[in-house]
Write a structure and sequence with these properties.
Layout: H1 25-37
Family: Belongs to the UPF0125 (RnfH) family.
Protein name: RnfH family protein
């Protein structure tokens, strides 16, 4: 579950840090398909 910034970590907690997406993956896929069609 996503944690709040103020939550404390316990021993053994798993932490995953993601960077924000720069572009929408669905839109990129659509653009690549359009480009391949040409």
């Amino acid at each position: 579950r996503p944690a709040k910034l103020g939550d404390t970590l316990n021993d053994g907690d798993r932490v995953e840090i993601y960077r924000p997406l720069i572009a929408d993956p669905k839109e990129l896929r659509r653009q690549r398909a359009e480009k391949a069609k040409k």
